[in-house]
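Question: Now follow the chain.
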Amino acid sequence: MDLSFWMGATAAGEYMGYSPDWVWERAIPWQETPVRGQFRYKVNPETGKRRYYRPDLDSFYVVRPQDCFR
């Protein structure tokens, strides 16, 4: 697993400005297609802990143009 795009719960929470529990509640197991408002994770085989996919965290606050004019 390339860890450059992956963060632990504490780091992900700090990165997002929320608690690790906030990240945990929005997490889903890894799937190929991202789900808006959810963070995909994989379990690190070496530690058994969840690692959250940083591009999902980055896209959480991105507003799509079609959502601006509803």
